[in-house]
Amino acid sequence: MSALQPATLTAARSSPAAANAAAASFAALTAKLGYLSREDTALVRKAYRFADEAHLGQLRSSGEPYITHPIAVAAQCADWKLDAQALMAALLHDAIEDCGVSKPELIERFGAPVAELVDGLTKLEKLAFNTREENQAESFRKMLLAMARDVRVILVKLADRTHNMRTLGDLPRTKWARISQETLDIYAPIAHRLGLNATYRELQDLSFAHLHPWRYATLAKALARSRGRRRDVIHRAQSEVQAALSAAGVSARIDGREKTLFSIYRKMNDKHLSFAQVTDIYGFRVIVDQIITCYSALGVLHQLYKPMPGKFKDYIAIPKINGYQSLHTTLIGPFGTNIEFQMRTEAMHVVAESGVAAHWLYKAVDPLGDASQNLGTQWLQSLLDIQNETRDASEFWDHIKIDLFPDAVYVFTPKSQIMAMPRGATVVDFAYTIHSDIGHRAVAARINGEQVPLRSELRNGDVVEVITGSVPSPNPAWLGFVRTGRARSKIRHHLKTMALAESSQLGEKMLAQALRAEGIEALPAHEGPQRRLWERILRFSGNRSRSDLLTDIGLGKRVASIVAKRLAALLIETGVKPDPLLMSRERFTAHESVSQTSLLLDGSEGASVQFAPCCRPIPGDDIVGYLGRGEGVMVHTADCSVAQRLQHRDSERFIAVQWSDEMTRPFETVLLLTVTEGKGVLARVASALANAEANITHLQMQPQSTESTTELRFTLAVDDRVHLARVIRGLKRTPAVLRVQRARPGL
To answer: What is the extent of the structural domain holding 324?
Structure first.
């Protein structure tokens, strides 16, 4: 459905002039269908007749018969040489919503593929791109997923939007700004991402003309005046280039190129230039028969005119991210005028103008057709991958909005394969682009043979080698610097999966301990005769599976003691007898207020157990565990003021925790030091910490003041309280240190 709503007439269309106009329009479309077989052309004609009858009695805002709009959309698709199914969908794209035609009726008349295309387009029409970000994100997600399933959906949609923009002047001016801004923000970038450069430029210019009519008109007049002044320069340059190429035996077609008004306006706006300061308004495309001739033509041009340093780009050897290929060079032409030249083959020219749509033109006759088929489709497929891992629309929008506006850098694998990455992409982005498993297991990297951090940004020409470990271990910190939506979604998905697995293990441990407090030695098996017992527990808890129940317990969404009591009651029904000795020992030997035994912590618990940043407990501290709702267990020191407030308000969510005898890693704590000002003080403090074998993970210094002392805040990794005491003694023996204390909440 177009942005231009049809106006339904009360009487049937009877004007011979209107009927003739529609027929003439279809005759113009038929003239473009020479690339289709006779059978396909007949199918397109059948779709036209059906659409014409369905839209009978409808007019556009301009007063034209409504059928002229579907015909114009189909004509644009015919220019892209789309197949008969796409042309039929273009003619029928408003039939379901505006004419009451059902999808089953379309399937019966035209087949399932055409009906699916029309249905996909109808769903796109219902998307309302509101200013509220979450609504826009959800609408955008639906549209991108529709085009990912079949790229013809978005090609027809772009043709539809292009014709709507061409006729936007027929709508009230109050609608111009919204439709134009939506086109500029959403549809033009998609056209560019898919390589539809002619459509991209037209949508930008049409949006600019309706958003800023006065600026557009002023620039158009300035460009017309400039065109008149520079006509002699352009004609002379064109004739000299043609003569030089002919003399060198290079057969070429030379097309003039003029910068669009919107791109001139954007350059003036971004770089604060006047119109006179924009020097690359005019240029030429030199179109030749084969790739080697592009380089021959480049040599001829560089002999004819002097090239500007730093203005040569080879997009043939390294294509742009949307498949664009050409040689670019800027030369100093007649009278010192800067002129850009682009050398490309005929096939490259079609791809440059039509992008992913070029596949239908070249798929049967040109080797490039196979490559054209993949233009943009890798990006489209990545949308489906991200969707499978990201159900939240706003998160989905965050993932793909960077990819939609690519400013690419080109890097190489160790085997010399070229990879296009967004500017600012890091080694981690590169690893996930190769394969998600490579990304998950990345531990180090080399760029151009030198060891570099994983967060290093990639630059053009880098040779990147990723070093992997044996176990997948994505770091949550990577989310702070990755650039691509694919890497971000893969990392988040893995971390969520890992956290759920850890929560399930924690929940199993907590339920087993709670069951011991009820006098039952171990959890019943979840297979065999006791499977029915678990089914009854799941009906009681409302979970779908045993794993879900254990995960909920580990995340704090279910209280282990309540589930254990119910499980014990069911076991007693089956004849299991509780052990009174076990019950009394587990319930009352420690933490009498808690109905579960202590959870042992050794530092290997993962994301399901977190150590509170307010008090940073370390082995040897008296600790308590708070079972947050959906957050797993948060461990505090027993004297932590935050934990005491929580206990006063929410005491039933506390569980007993204690340290294991063997720890698997060091733990962080914070020391506050008051030291005298002077040279070398920090070095002496760091030396004392090193002698005590404490690792400094973070240092915060008080800003310089006029006082003779300063405050230092060290975050240290230590083994336990005994180790911390040794560290503090070493610091107190350091002459410049006046006071040492461990940070507590509020300090």
So the answer is: 230-372
